[in-house]
Design goal:
The chain is an alpha/beta fold. It has one domain: 2-enoyl-CoA Hydratase, Chain A, domain 1 (Alpha-Beta Complex), CATH 3.90.226. The chain is 46% helix and 16% strand. The protein is built from eleven helices and eleven strands. The strands form two sheets. Strands 1, 2, 4, 5, 6, 8, 9 and 10 form an eight-stranded mixed β-sheet that branches. A three-stranded antiparallel β-sheet has the order 3-11-7. α1 crosses α10 and α2 runs parallel beside α3.
């Protein structure tokens, strides 16, 4: 009983300590951002809106009880708010993502393209990674800024499924499958992929790839034939992407904000409207990061191998 009580007290102490650290971290960040580009204060008037695309791109959030809407749907809602806010004269899309599902990436692209057609200047800012679906989203913007070391490119489509047939046979597991058609269990992990099934999946991959290539060419104002030679799934640094005209400039997030101001003909001290979250939302997000551990890139790649093996995706897979 004493041992169980000690374990319970230790867990409670850890939760309290984590909450205190999260609150202090949030307070420090808010103080720092008041002096930087992330303005949340009472400033009003024409300015630049910020939207963030972080982690694996999928339609909804990752499903964690602590998650605060990191999916494509919340990103589109944020873009919709910026679109209908008369004070927003330009938008910076901050991207730190290895990509994700085809449908979610396409919906964000189409929403950005809608804003672009309304002549709202869009500037993409690449963080440590904006690859595959992350680059797909960036290509919808008028202008792309990457760091020298940003990982980008990876223009292509992938679908994966583990083949556990040999393992199942070894340990004596048989699967009973009752299905309505011969393709209903396509990409099942307990049997080999038949040639005609592989052809079906390849057709889907090719169709999604052609859409990817077409949209990137449209966004970059280039011919598909100019992009296709490097649209073979290769990843590259921001510096290399500049050479291939996949990005327009090497620079930081601050540089991207400055470029958005210039494109919208705004003053250098105009407001920058960050996504606002309540202190509780920020605390939960900080705590989630502490418990899950790892960077956004690491989390996204872990999700790929654990959860997303049966999806056709615009995603970089190392």
């Amino acid at each position: 009983m004493d041992r169980n009580r000690k374990i319970l007290i230790s867990i409670l102490a850890l939760l309290v300590l984590s909450s205190v650290i999260a609150i202090v971290d949030i307070s420090l960040n808010m103080q720092q951002k008041r002096g930087g580009v992330s303005i949340r204060g009472p400033q009003v008037g024409s300015g630049v809106g910020i939207v963030r695309v972080e982690g694996a791109i999928q339609m909804t959030g990752a499903g964690s009880p602590l998650a605060m809407g990191q999916g494509a749907e919340s990103i589109i809602r944020r873009l919709d708010d910026l679109e209908h806010n008369g004070d927003i004269k330009a938008v910076v899309v901050r991207i730190n993502s290895p990509g994700g599902t085809v449908g979610a990436s396409q919906e964000i692209y189409q929403k950005l393209w809608k804003l672009r057609k309304k002549n709202i200047p869009l500037v993409a800012s690449m963080g440590e990674m904006a690859a595959s679906g992350g680059y797909y989203v960036a290509s919808a913007c008028n202008y792309i800024v990457a760091n020298h070391g940003s990982i980008t490119g990876s223009i292509g489509v992938i679908a994966m499924s583990p083949n556990l047939r040999g393992l199942f046979q070894k340990i004596g597991i048989d699967m009973n499958v009752i299905k309505s058609g011969k393709y209903k269990d396509i990409l099942s992990s307990f049997r080999d992929l038949r040639p005609e099934e592989r052809e079906l999946i390849q057709d889907m991959i090719d169709s999604s790839y052609r859409k990817f290539l077409k949209d990137v060419a449209l966004g970059r104002n280039q011919n598909e034939s100019d992009i296709e030679p490097i649209a073979d799934g290769r990843v590259m640094s921001g510096e290399t992407a500049l050479k291939y005209k996949l990005v327009d400039m090497l620079g930081t997030f601050e540089d991207a904000v400055d470029k958005a101001r210039q494109m919208a003909k705004l003053s250098e001290d105009c407001p920058v409207y960050e996504e606002t979250k309540t202190p509780f939302e920020q605390m939960f997000m900080r705590m989630e990061g502490m418990f899950r551990g790892g960077s956004l890139m690491d989390q996204g790649l872990r999700e790929l191998h654990i959860e997303n093996n049966y999806r056709i995706e615009y995603r970089y897979v190392p």
